């Protein structure tokens, strides 16, 4: 029978008498490399595809496709190719010679595989090591002690089949919407242990300090004793327990007073050191890190950790690196955890299989809530193989405090017979959930239904179950992700049964194709669904999510003229008082056009701690600012968490656009403006700049300056929505200014052009629109391929959508032209083309020279050129006419999966609806300068060579 020893021991300074052996710990000898960057060559033979039918060398761990062998398959190729489809079922034979030390005789030696795709038949010196292992993402091992030749070389042979002989394994793992590869993709090593050793332990450490450990012992015999001590982060012993070993499983129980609890905000960990004694001598020793925490699902209420309700700000993550597929390393795992936490997220779902063990270790140490998932992409493992894989998964992962749920498969890939098995190996009995995509499939009190919209989410939250979608707001291309997130997140945050959810997904699964000149392949629209690119290139949603999910929430949109340094803040931490967080304020002055610099200069700054505001409470942050704070251009506030990491940086203008915009350069002018008619045009000329206005339409027809006979900015302002019919165009002088006025019937009411002797061109216009509009404003044409780059004062550096305004900050930004289509090569971010918010001025750098646009009115959007938002039958959403637009309203962006949210976004929530205009007159003013002003600090005009870029 299982022997149970219960011993409650207070803190003590007693110590065990230890007679240490030198080899009481598990020894590891790697046969492969340790990760994708540190590999070892093995002999290899492949049955089909590239480099097949001959022995050669291959790096291990790796996928053989990435080493130039075999053929590629994406899991949904059976859909793509239909009747012409076939999975490439190559077999790969691996061989590796290795030595075994003579001194290891009498010990147990295991060969351990961390992950093999997909079936693995293992032989040692020609003898079978054991049954063929089936299942790609799980650690398995064989006792090979009796098959080895000691003191000599031995041969390991592994035959790997990409397609499993078990159809359910193929259904669960390989008929899936992700890249499916082959080979030994995680490390292989020997474990050398004594005849009596601790195979593994399972820990249940509760928030009240209760500590329960199940110790699994191999080689039980007379005279064995277990002794364990719990050690805190200061290496101080805080608890001890011992028991006699009478069976292969021993339970150790104790209680620790006031342990520091593990949460994603406070990832406190302890170490339990366990020693196996034989007749008073240590024969084996192992250490295991763990955390004290208690997980509960309180049905019809919420998810509780340590007695506190928590909500998931999560993302789905594939294990991925473009050059090496699912063979990665601890540095990649670390950067992914840091990236997730950078977005102020607190949770990650391991979709759709268990990750590398290093990833879970990092989630433990840095703090992320983890859903560890058994593979099963829409179809489940059969019970016999699934039973083995659940055991392998849970035994490996059970002691990670970061794992708060086991997920039994995805979207119908649930074998209900396996649900109870998780608790057989996890004595903490974590909840098991099902990640599903069909309404009404709640399990264990949690509805995880995928891709609901705002209104169906609202309905589910009003129902009886906790709602925690394990996938939502599919982030293909530039859609989804943060677009629509604020509305849905606020629903979850404020709803009793809202538990948050997991965005799909973190990374674009772009694979370097060694059969296609190393191009990165995202398999069309199947795999570019990440918030970041394959090499973690950050899309616009990243910073938007940072702001939406910031645990310090600030809703102040603009500074009040009577601002005295007080800002209302809301604490959206679950466990952290804001007095553990710090801040920095800065008063800024921005660079001007023609200047070079960092974008801004810090005039003054200060630091401090936030006031004591309890979790979920609101309060006021007060900062002592200089009395002259309104004399500067902007005020910035940066918040830092208790580890010193930046949470977010907010910037507010202290002046309006009328003060920050410009419409003059400091240069001496001694000529007057000229005004004349020329055929169908009205011509204004000043300071070497000539503007031509069509006298029939009132629109800009052409431009020229002393360096170029023609400039290509023209054909505007045209309404992007609405109609305009010219009524009258007239021109006249007003003192030293040339004026052209045009009036219209329809939605456009008037355009007025003014030019003074400096060459600055002022454009005033007014229009009215009624009803729902995708966009509103005016446009001009300009060839995109003439543009080298742009510099602007406004929100940036990323483009925005109506339902993804967050994440941009007010500053001077500079960007070179790129042709990035989000989610596709070359993943150059931020994208150049798009909608930019709250623009004050913009400096266009073109092959025709620079020109300048200045906007004295607040809250104007500038659209730059044509671009894709979300790939479908056509680009979505529709774009305004023209190339450069000045807009008062811009469209929302949809998402790939949410009913019909690709084209009709209103279901994503209020911010995703079209713009409703009420027919009121909208009046705007824009200043242009189409010349080359004097360089700042110089006494002479900068001379450009005279060129004729366009002769038209």
TrEMBL record:
Residue span, Glycoside hydrolase family 2 immunoglobulin-like beta-sandwich domain: 200-293
Alphabetical list of SUPFAM superfamilies matching this protein: (Trans)glycosidases, beta-Galactosidase/glucuronidase domain, Galactose mutarotase-like, Galactose-binding domain-like
Gene Ontology CC: beta-galactosidase complex
Domain Glycoside hydrolase family 2 catalytic stretches: 296-517
Signal peptide: 1-21
Cofactor: Ca(2+)
Enzyme Commission (EC) number: 3.2.1.23
Record field: catalytic activity: Hydrolysis of terminal non-reducing beta-D-galactose residues in beta-D-galactosides
Residues annotated as domain Glycosyl hydrolases family 2 sugar binding: 56-191
Primary enzyme class: hydrolase
GO molecular function: beta-galactosidase activity; carbohydrate binding
Keyword annotations of the record: Calcium, Glycosidase, Hydrolase, Signal
Gene Ontology biological process terms from the UniProt entry: lactose catabolic process
Keyword Cell wall biogenesis/degradation found: no
Transmembrane parts of this sequence: none
PANTHER family for the chain: BETA-GALACTOSIDASE
Family statement: Belongs to the glycosyl hydrolase 2 family.
Subunit structure comment from the entry: Monomer.
Name of this protein: Beta-galactosidase
Organism name: Olivibacter domesticus
């Amino acid at each position: 029978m299982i022997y149970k020893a219960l011993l409650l021991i207070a803190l003590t300074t007693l110590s065990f008498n230890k007679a240490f052996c030198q080899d009481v710990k598990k020894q590891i000898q790697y046969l492969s490399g340790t990760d994708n960057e540190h590999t070892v060559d093995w002999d290899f033979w492949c049955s089909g595809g590239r480099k097949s039918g001959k022995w050669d060398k291959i790096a291990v761990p790796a996928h053989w496709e990435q080493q130039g062998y075999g053929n590629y398959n994406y899991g949904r190729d059976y859909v793509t190719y239909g009747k012409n489809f076939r999975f490439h079922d190559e077999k790969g034979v691996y061989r590796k010679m290795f030595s075994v030390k003579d001194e290891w005789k009498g010990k147990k030696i295991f060969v351990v595989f961390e992950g093999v795709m997909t079936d693995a038949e293992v032989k040692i010196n020609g003898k079978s090591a054991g049954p063929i292992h089936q299942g790609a993402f799980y650690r398995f091992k064989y006792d090979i002690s009796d098959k080895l030749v000691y003191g000599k070389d031995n041969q390991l042979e592994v035959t790997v089949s990409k397609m499993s002989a078990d159809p359910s394994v193929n259904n669960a793992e390989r008929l899936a919407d992700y890249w499916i590869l082959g080979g030994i993709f995680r490390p292989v090593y020997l474990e050398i242990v004594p005849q009596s050793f601790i195979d593994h332990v399972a820990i249940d450490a509760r928030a009240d300090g209760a500590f329960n450990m199940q110790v699994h012992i191999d080689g039980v015999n007379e005279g064995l004793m277990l002794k364990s001590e719990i050690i805190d982060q200061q290496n101080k012993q805080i608890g001890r327990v011992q028991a006699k070993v009478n069976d292969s499983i021993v339970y150790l129980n104790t209680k620790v007073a006031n342990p520091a609890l593990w949460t994603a905000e406070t990832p406190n960990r302890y170490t339990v050191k366990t020693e196996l004694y034989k007749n008073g001598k240590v024969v084996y020793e192992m250490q295991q890190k763990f955390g004290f925490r208690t997980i509960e699902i309180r049905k019809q209420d919420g998810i509780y950790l340590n007695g506190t309700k928590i909500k998931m700000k999560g993302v789905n993550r594939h294990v991925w690196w473009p050059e090496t597929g699912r063979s990665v390393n601890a540095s990649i795992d670390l950067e992914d955890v840091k990236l997730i936490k950078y977005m102020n997220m607190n949770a990650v779902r391991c979709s759709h299989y268990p990750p590398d063990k290093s990833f879970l270790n990092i989630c433990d140490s840095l703090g992320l809530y983890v859903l560890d998932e058994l593979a099963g992409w829409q179809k489940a493992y059969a019970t016999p193989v699934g039973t083995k894989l659940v055991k392998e998964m849970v035994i490996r992962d059970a002691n990670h405090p970061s794992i708060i749920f086991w997920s039994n498969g995805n979207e119908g890939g649930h074998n209900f017979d396996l649900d109870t098995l998780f608790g057989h190996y996890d004595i903490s009995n974590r909840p098991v959930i099902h990640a599903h995509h069909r309404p009404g499939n709640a399990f264990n009190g949690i509805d995880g239904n995928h891709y609901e919209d705002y209104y169906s989410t609202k309905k589910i939250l009003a129902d009886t179950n906790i709602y925690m979608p394990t996938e939502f707001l599919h982030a293909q291309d530039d859609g989804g992700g943060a677009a629509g997130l604020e509305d849905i997140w606020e629903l979850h945050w404020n709803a009793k049964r809202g538990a948050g959810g997991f965005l799909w997904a973190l990374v674009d699964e772009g694979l370097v194709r060694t059969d296609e000149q190393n191009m990165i392949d995202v398999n069309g629209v199947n795999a570019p669904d990440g918030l970041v690119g394959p090499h973690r290139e950050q899309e616009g949603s990243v910073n938007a999510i940072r702001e939406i999910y910031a645990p310090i929430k600030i809703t102040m949109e603009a500074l009040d003229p009577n601002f005295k340094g007080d800002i209302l803040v809301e604490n959206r931490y679950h466990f952290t008082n804001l007095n553990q967080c710090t801040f920095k304020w800065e008063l800024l002055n921005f660079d001007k056009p023609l200047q070079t610099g960092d974008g801004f200069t810090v005039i003054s700054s200060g630091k401090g701690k936030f006031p004591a505001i309890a979790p979920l409470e609101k309060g006021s942050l007060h900062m002592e600012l200089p009395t002259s704070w309104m004399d500067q251009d902007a005020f910035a506030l940066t918040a830092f968490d208790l580890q010193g990491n930046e949470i977010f940086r907010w910037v507010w203008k202290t002046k309006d656009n009328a003060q920050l915009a410009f419409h003059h350069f400091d240069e001496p002018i001694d000529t007057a403006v000229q005004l004349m008619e020329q055929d169908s045009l009205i011509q204004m000329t000043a300071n070497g700049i000539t503007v031509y206005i069509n006298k029939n339409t009132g629109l800009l027809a052409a431009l020229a300056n002393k360096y170029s006979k023609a400039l290509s900015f023209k054909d505007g302002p045209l309404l992007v929505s609405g109609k305009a019919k010219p009524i009258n165009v007239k021109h006249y002088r007003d003192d030293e200014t040339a004026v052209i006025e045009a009036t219209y019937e329809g939605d456009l009411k008037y355009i007025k052009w003014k030019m003074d002797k400096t060459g600055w061109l002022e454009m005033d216009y007014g229009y009215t629109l009624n009803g729902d509009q995708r966009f509103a404003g005016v446009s001009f044409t300009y060839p995109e391929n003439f543009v080298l780059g742009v510099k602007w004062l406004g929100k940036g550096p990323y483009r925005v959508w109506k339902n993804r305004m967050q994440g941009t900050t007010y500053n001077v930004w500079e960007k070179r032209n790129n042709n990035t289509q989000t989610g596709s090569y070359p993943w150059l971010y931020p994208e150049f083309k798009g909608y930019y918010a709250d623009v004050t001025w913009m400096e266009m750098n073109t092959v025709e020279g620079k020109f300048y646009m200045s906007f004295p009115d607040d809250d104007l959007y500038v659209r730059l050129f044509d671009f894709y938002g979300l790939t479908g039958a056509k680009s979505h959403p529709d774009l305004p006419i023209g190339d450069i637009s000045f807009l008062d309203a811009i469209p929302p962006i949809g998402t790939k999966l949410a009913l019909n949210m690709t084209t009709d976004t209103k279901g994503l929530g209020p911010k995703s609806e079209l713009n409703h205009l009420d027919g009121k007159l909208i009046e705007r003013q824009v200043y242009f300068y189409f010349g080359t002003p004097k360089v700042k600090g110089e006494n002479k005009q900068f001379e450009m060579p005279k060129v004729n870029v366009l002769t038209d």
